[in-house]
């Protein structure tokens, strides 16, 4: 089968022939219809030797949708033909967090040599994906695969970040989304669909502001010297009750702090490498709360799929054939990707 294989650290992955897996025991074989491309794939590709606990070679792809095509003899809970999206964070499977379906916060994560499909285990940038059991599979009904695949990471990560802030986002509140890309545009939609807050969006690209508008933002603006003032004015003058930073650079963190209301909450999702100094006395608003949400739970993935199937979520995607993965990766790396990039086996 065709697969995008990572064979050496610091070297670009390449389309290659790989053995089509055969499911044993509880394993389930998924015929891949779509696999999303994530900025974290770039971090894996660029990792120097020893930086990650993963053993090479493996197939990339941790944001996958398709249908069940074969079952191991002990597989249960799915049937051949079921269309599914694959819950991406695979933990140890036996700690309290994994038992609760929060594999994203597995207590033994640092002891594992992999973190999921495409993350040290063969992933879904391929024609087939082998999953250990039916446990990570969430039914998608007739949702198109290129809409479903991004829900397993871009959608779930945004949904999990919003879920942590939802208590602060009742009537009359303001949420600010910094970075309207593959995750941010879904966060805008999830905020509109699941909270009562007004939603303000910020980006550095004009076309991202248009995406924010299409996603339902009440206001969208470019990152400028006076952006904080503009956002505060749109929040009724008191500042934002919550800020979701999908970029995470020093500049965006600085903007986030400058627009937060006292008692406000900041969720930093983007891995831009920026840092904050937390001190008292200091510049952070009184009552400031910070979270660093990571991916999401299996139960939340089912919630994201339900939202999408209700029509409340529409993923802006750019489709590429799997054979064009190197071009898609380069486009993402150059910041030219619009919405979420999805690879389709060709
Ligand atoms: C996956 C693996 C490791 C770090 C970050 C990620 C994100 O793409 C998950 O949303
Ligand atoms: Zn990812
Ligand atoms: Zn665990």
TrEMBL record:
It holds the Pfam family ADH_zinc_N. It comes from the Bacteria. Catalyzes the oxidation of 2-deoxy-scyllo-inosamine (DOIA) with NAD(+) or NADP(+), forming 3-amino-2,3-dideoxy-scyllo-inosose (amino-DOI). It is an enzyme of class 1 (oxidoreductase). Its cofactor is Zn(2+). Transmembrane segments: none annotated. Its EC number is 1.1.1.329. Keywords: Metal-binding, Oxidoreductase, Zinc. This is 2-deoxy-scyllo-inosamine dehydrogenase. SUPFAM superfamilies: GroES-like (SSF50129), NAD(P)-binding Rossmann-fold domains (SSF51735). Pathway: Metabolic intermediate biosynthesis; 2-deoxystreptamine biosynthesis; 2-deoxystreptamine from D-glucose 6-phosphate: step 3/4. Belongs to the zinc-containing alcohol dehydrogenase family. DOIA dehydrogenase subfamily. Residues 2-343 form the Enoyl reductase (ER) domain. It catalyses: 2-deoxy-scyllo-inosamine + NADP(+) = 3-amino-2,3-dideoxy-scyllo-inosose + NADPH + H(+); 2-deoxy-scyllo-inosamine + NAD(+) = 3-amino-2,3-dideoxy-scyllo-inosose + NADH + H(+).
């Amino acid at each position: 089968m065709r697969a995008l294989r990572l064979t050496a650290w610091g070297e670009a992955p390449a389309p290659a022939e790989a053995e089509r897996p055969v499911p044993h025991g509880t394993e389930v074989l998924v015929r891949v219809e779509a696999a999303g491309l994530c900025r974290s794939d770039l971090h894996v590709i660029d990792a120097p030797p020893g930086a990650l606990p993963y053993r090479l070679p493996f197939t990339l792809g941790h944001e996958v949708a398709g249908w069940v095509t074969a079952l191991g003899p002990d597989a249960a809970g799915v049937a051949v033909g079921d269309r599914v999206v694959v819950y991406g964070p695979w933990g140890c499977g036996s700690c309290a967090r994994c038992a609760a379906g929060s594999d994203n916060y597995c207590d033994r994560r640092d002891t594992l040599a992999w973190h999921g499909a495409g993350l040290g285990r063969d992933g879904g940038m391929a024609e087939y994906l082998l999953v250990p059991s039916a446990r990570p599979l969430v039914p998608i009904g007739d949702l198109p695969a290129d809409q479903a695949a991004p829900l397993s990471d871009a959608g779930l990560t945004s949904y999990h970040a919003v879920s942590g802030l939802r208590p602060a986002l009742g009537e009359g509140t303001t949420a600010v989304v910094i970075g309207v890309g593959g995750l941010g545009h879904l966060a805008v939609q999830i905020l509109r669909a699941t909270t009562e807050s007004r939603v303000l969006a910020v980006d550095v690209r004009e076309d991202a502001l248009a995406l924010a508008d299409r996603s339902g933002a009440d206001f969208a603006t470019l990152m400028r010297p006076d952006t904080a003032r503009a956002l505060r004015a749109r929040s009724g003058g008191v500042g934002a009750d919550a800020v979701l930073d999908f970029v995470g650079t020093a500049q965006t963190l600085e903007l986030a702090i400058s627009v937060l209301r006292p008692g406000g909450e900041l969720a930093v999702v983007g891995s831009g490498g920026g840092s904050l100094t937390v001190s008292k006395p200091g510049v952070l608003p009184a009552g400031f709360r910070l979270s660093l949400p990571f991916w999401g739970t299996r139960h939340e993935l089912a919630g994201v799929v339900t939202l999408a199937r209700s029509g409340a979520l529409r993923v802006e995607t750019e489709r590429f054939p799997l054979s064009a993965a190197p071009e898609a990766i380069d486009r993402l790396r150059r910041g030219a990707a619009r919405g979420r990039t999805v690879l389709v086996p060709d």
